[in-house]
Amino acid sequence: MFSLLIEFAFGMAMGALGGFFGIGGGLIAIPVMTIAFGQGQTLAQGTALIMMVPNVAIALWRYQQRTPVCWALALPLAGAGLLTAALGAHIAILLNPGIIQLGFAILMLLLAALNLVRARLVADPKVLLLSTSPRLAVVGGACGVLGGFFGVGASVVAVPVLTSVFGFAQVAAQGMALTLALPSTVVTLISYGVAGHVDWTMGAAMALGGFFSVGWGVKWAYQVPETLLCGLFSLFLASCAIFLLIPRI
Question: What pTM did the predictor assign?
Answer without folding.
Answer: 0.76
